Amino acid sequence: MGSPCPDEMNVDEIAVGMVARYPRTGTTGRVERIEEIDGIAFAGLDATDLFYRVDHLIPVSHVEKRRKSRKEGYKKVLEKEREAATSIEEEWRPTDELCEGGG
């Protein structure tokens, strides 16, 4: 293994409830549990339900802001899609009433 990144967590710095990022994959999540496996401390992140070595995690403080921002972005997209669907439905309604399907 290479030299540790200066931002990596010390095992004593990690706690359940804090937010951390695994830099190799960019996975970020809240620490749900900490377990020692074969003498190595691992943290279980809620984002993946997987364990990551504590000494490879980086503490993150701005994740909640990003999650809220992303959630608001999704809400805006969903609202625009609903408006478009309503608009299309209103445009087609008169043609549906004219066509009786007779032949």
Quickly count the domains.
2
Poorly predicted runs of 5 or more residues: none
What's the CATH architecture name of the largest domain? Roll
Order of strands across the widest beta sheet? 4-3-2-1-5
Q: What is the average of the pLDDT values?
A: 79
Structure description:
The structure is a single chain. The protein has 103 residues and is an alpha+beta fold. It has two domains: 1-61, Roll (SH3 type barrels), CATH 2.30.30; 62-98. 35% of the residues lie in helices and 26% in strands. The chain is built from one helix and five strands. Strands 4-3-2-1-5 form a five-stranded antiparallel sheet, with no helix packed on it. Strand 3 (40-45) and strand 4 form a beta hairpin. The longest helix has 36 residues, at 63-98. The chain starts with 18 loop residues before the first strand and ends in a 5-residue tail after the last helix. 13% of the residues are buried. The mean pLDDT is 79.
Keywords:
single chain; 103 residues; alpha+beta; SH3 type barrels; 2 domains; five-stranded antiparallel β-sheet
Short overview:
This protein is of the alpha+beta class.
Layout of SSEs?
Elements lengths: L18 E4 L4 E11 L2 E6 L4 E4 L4 E2 L3 H36 L5
Antiparallel strand pairs: 1-2, 1-5, 2-3, 3-4
